[in-house]
């Protein structure tokens, strides 16, 4: 049997990524602009892909079958993030489930990514295993990239009203 604190970390990590995927799919439904929809769907797919990285991250600490059971339980009855609750409230306040303020969706998405960075940074500080540290750095870099990409989108929408199709650059200098 695995230590309860490890199980809770796994649950939290899986819930974080599932919430991210759900959030981006919901934001895609609520966003009016086609490029915005495309961008949010692409981010949803990337968040969904992080589940495999979570599996690898905890593979030495938790039995594979137990990890799969936790992932299935979280998928069946996910813990709803406050950011998702806020997105739903924004959509309802607009009076129609298919309409939301694009800038609000971008701001909420940035908050979701900020929380993910904090979560993975916290995990990184708890481990000395170089393989796990490397994996966590990768997840942190991905979440930072998402945040920077969303910030660029927000700046573009607010300043010129144009959605970008894809990231045309990386703010961290990586191409």
Q: Would you mind describing this structure in some detail?
A:
The chain has 175 residues and is mainly alpha-helical. The protein has a single domain, classed as Ferritin, core subunit, four-helix bundle (Ferritin, Up-down Bundle), CATH 1.20.1260.10. 75% of the residues lie in helices and 0% in strands. It contains six helices and no strands. It has helices spanning 4-30, 34-58, 64-76, 82-93, 102-126, 130-159. Helix 1 runs antiparallel to helix 2 (34-58), helix 2 runs antiparallel to helix 6 and helix 5 packs antiparallel against helix 6 (130-159). It starts with a helix and ends in a 16-residue tail after the last helix. The model has no long low-confidence stretch (mean pLDDT 79).
Features:
globular, 75% helix, Ferritin, 6 helices
* Share in β-strands: under 5%
Q: What global shape is seen?
A: globular
Let me know the CATH homologous superfamily. Ferritin, core subunit, four-helix bundle
What's the CATH class label? Mainly Alpha
Q: Spans of 5+ residues with little confidence (pLDDT < 50)? A: none
Largest sheet: none
Query: Which fold name corresponds to the CATH topology?
Result: Ferritin
Number of distinct beta strands: 0
| Number of separate helices | 6
Structural class: mainly alpha
SSE pattern, N- to C-terminal = HHHHHH
- Overall residue-averaged pLDDT value: 79
- Terminal-residue CA separation: 44 Å
CATH architecture: Up-down Bundle
Query: In total, how many domains does the architecture comprise?
Result: 1
Helix content: over 70%
């Amino acid at each position: 049997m695995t230590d309860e604190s490890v199980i809770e970390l796994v649950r939290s990590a899986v819930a974080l990524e599932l919430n991210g995927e759900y959030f981006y799919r919901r934001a895609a439904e609520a966003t009016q602009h086609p490029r915005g929809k495309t961008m949010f769907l692409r981010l949803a797919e990337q968040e969904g892909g992080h589940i495999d990285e979570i599996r690898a991250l905890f593979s030495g600490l938790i039995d594979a079958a137990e990890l799969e059971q936790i992932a299935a339980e979280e998928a069946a009855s996910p813990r709803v993030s406050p950011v998702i609750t806020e997105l739903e409230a924004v959509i309802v306040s607009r009076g129609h489930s298919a309409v939301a303020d694009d800038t609000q969706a971008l701001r909420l998405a940035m908050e979701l990514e900020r929380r993910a960075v904090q979560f993975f940074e916290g995990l990184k500080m708890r481990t000395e295993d170089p393989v796990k540290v490397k994996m966590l750095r990768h997840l942190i870099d991905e979440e930072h990239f998402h945040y920077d990409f969303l910030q660029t989108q927000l700046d573009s929408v607010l300043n010129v009203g144009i959605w970008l199709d894809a990231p045309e650059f990386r703010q961290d200098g990586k191409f």
